[in-house]
Design goal:
The chain has a domain of about 110 residues: Trypsin-like serine proteases (Thrombin, subunit H, Beta Barrel). It is about 20% helix and about 25% strand. It contains five helices and 13 strands. It has a six-stranded antiparallel beta barrel with strand order 8-9-10-13-12-11. It binds 4-(aminomethyl)benzoic acid. 4-(aminomethyl)benzoic acid (4AZ) binds next to β12.
Amino acid sequence: MKPTVFSVFLFSNAFLISARFNGYRSKCGRLLQTEEKIVGGADVGYYKYPWYAVLRTHNTQLVCAGSLIGPKTVLTVAHCYKPWFQSVADGFTTFEEIYEIVLGVYNVCISEKTQKTFAAEKVIIHEKYTNGSAYHDIALIILNGTARDYTPICLPKPVQTLPSNGIAIGFGKESHSATMLPCNMREVQLKIYSDEECRDMFQKNNETIDEAVNILCAGDLQGGKDTCQGDSGGPFQTTDEDGKYIVTGLVSFGFGCARNGTLGIYTYVANYTEWIEEKIELTSSTEE
Ligand code: 4AZ
């Protein structure tokens, strides 16, 4: 009996591995059209990034964002839930009830044919995130339906070689003082700074950072290029050697927006790849 059991086990394992390799997530990181636009704080021009998820409270405009990483999984930041921590603790609401999740968005002000709205079946906030903390700013949303029609963005490998630039996308404010959000998705190319430059930037802004390893600093020390309010949770993307898009960072916080001498702070996703995989596996066996 034993050899049979053993071979069945091997077979099922091999099957799982090949399903993983050929599955939905292996097609990650491809733009909808190959046409490329010039970046630098500009309208992306067309429905281009299929993994971008808009998080909005019911019947209001966009509040936060996320990235589709699996057929039912959206990656976002924990601080998008921060205003509701007390209401959830008091039993007035649940994290799941707060946002509706819209995929297929280029113009957030209209109802586009490509758009589809989901509800959250489950929200998983990083266990080490504490209300108001700058660290472990990461969360997962399990959707109430499958989003297989939308291409996910690729997750970084746990050990990632960083290029010198990345691209942030979103519907956030176009300046710190702006009162309106743009309708069309915008993108900006940002420089990636070293941990040392990042620590230095914190110090110069009279802040300290003890866990710089889990964050990434990107932007432009000269000012003028940054993410801002409304961009939170969205991806800071880099491309790999095949041109596939990777969610290298998550828009987390900053010192105002685009100010000279400041950089934007992004959750460094590579350090959470295992956390993400573990949560996805626990949530669903059909994720791939
Ligand atoms: C915000 O308020 C925010 N410049 C997000 C990102 C940055 C600043 C503020 C980075 O959600």
